[in-house]
Design a protein that fits this description.
- The chain is built from 11 helices and 8 strands.
- The protein has 324 residues and is α/β, with parallel strands linked by helices.
- It has a single domain, classed as Histone deacetylase domain (Arginase, Chain A), CATH 3.40.800.20.
- Strands 2-1-3-8-7-4-5-6 form an 8-stranded parallel beta sheet, sandwiched between helices.
- Helix 2 crosses helix 11, helix 9 runs parallel beside helix 10 and helix 10 runs parallel beside helix 11.
- The longest helix is centred in the first third of the chain and has 21 residues.
């Protein structure tokens, strides 16, 4: 079995835009309810961690200070929007967002240091992949992925990082901020941007300059099923091929599953299980087991519970594991 950490706690529940918004605390509650009854929980290999607060200096390694200050001020009044109309402010949004980022940083620290033998970690509310350096977007305030990448470089001197994103929405806040960086390898499966926010991530976008060929966008038509997903994910396996990297960050948004109210894809949680199993194996082969899972999107709470738990179960299991 693989020692795996899950970050869980009320501080993550606070990252919620209210009951009338698609992203509310019921998502975390559904995940936790199912996790408590899971084989992973009974395995003895699952370690629960309390959320951690990111410090502003670390956040500023990715986000511009003017934007950080804007979020801080908006957090006091809790009124208006943090972007053009998708991401409302609420009282306490600043600290809530710092807890999401800090929990992903905690997951990073744990797997890099192999604290208590932990090599995998999961932050269910992480994966806020739409936030840009100077703006919120798509329910994402601080981009914990971008912050974690910068932290991994500065604190641990990691050179190559693989980012895999299977959220139904293209991870534009990660892709375009590292589009010209050849050391950040990106593979992103999502619904075709012609049909879904943010309208980006076309297959012709493969990186800029020296980074050309280090990025892979795979867009699927509305109605795509597990079969379509598996076919696309095999392209990711080929893309990774002989590449070298020291860490995998896996954004496993559950909004591609059939029944999500915001998207048009028709996966089941078998797609998440497959992706997690492949990346789990590759992590043990190439990155000393280091893999961080981030929950990302998903607005049907049963789908969220099912998909995220599949990822955790695979991380804990050893049937796909190679010796680190």
């Amino acid at each position: 079995m693989c020692n795996t950490a899950v970050v869980i706690g009320k501080e993550l529940s606070n990252y919620s835009f209210g009951q009338k918004h698609p992203l509310d605390s019921s998502r975390l509650e559904a995940f936790w309810s199912k996790l408590t009854l899971s084989e992973a929980m009974r395995s003895g290999s699952l370690k629960l961690l309390s959320p951690a607060l990111a410090d502003e200096r670390t956040v500023s390694s990715f986000h511009e200070n003017d934007y950080i200050n804007f979020v801080r001020k908006s957090s006091v009044t809790g009124s208006g929007y943090l972007d053009s109309g998708d991401t409302p402010s609420f009282k306490g949004v600043f600290d809530a967002s710092l807890y999401v980022a800090g929990s992903t940083l905690l997951a990073l620290d744990i797997v890099i240091n192999k604290t208590n033998g932990i090599v995998h970690a999961f932050n269910p509310i992480g994966g806020l992949h739409h936030a840009r350096r100077s703006a919120a977007g798509g329910f994402c305030v601080f981009n914990d992925i971008g912050i974690a990448i910068m932290h991994a470089r500065k604190k641990y001197n990691l050179k190559k990082i693989l980012y895999v994103d299977i959220d139904a929405h293209h991870g534009d806040g990660v892709f375009y901020e590292f589009e010209d960086d050849p050391d950040i390898l990106i593979a992103d499966i999502h619904e075709d941007g012609s049909f879904l926010y943010p309208g980006t991530g076309f297959e012709s976008e493969t990186g800029l300059g020296a980074a050309k060929g280090t990025k892979l966008n795979l867009s699927l038509r509305p109605g795509a099923t597990d079969r379509d997903f598996l076919s696309a994910f095999m392209k990711i396996e080929n893309f990774i091929g002989s590449m070298k990297f020291e860490l995998i960050i896996f954004q496993c948004g559950a909004d591609g599953l059939s029944g999500d109210p915001l998207t048009h894809l028709k996966y089941t949680d078998k797609s998440h299980e497959y992706a997690a199993r492949v990346l789990h194996r590759i992590a043990h082969e190439k990155s000393s087991g280091r893999i961080i899972g981030l929950g990302g999107g998903g607005y049907n709470v049963q789908n969220v519970a099912d998909a995220w738990n599949k990822v955790v179960e695979v991380f804990v299991s050893e049937d796909s594991m190679m010796k680190s």
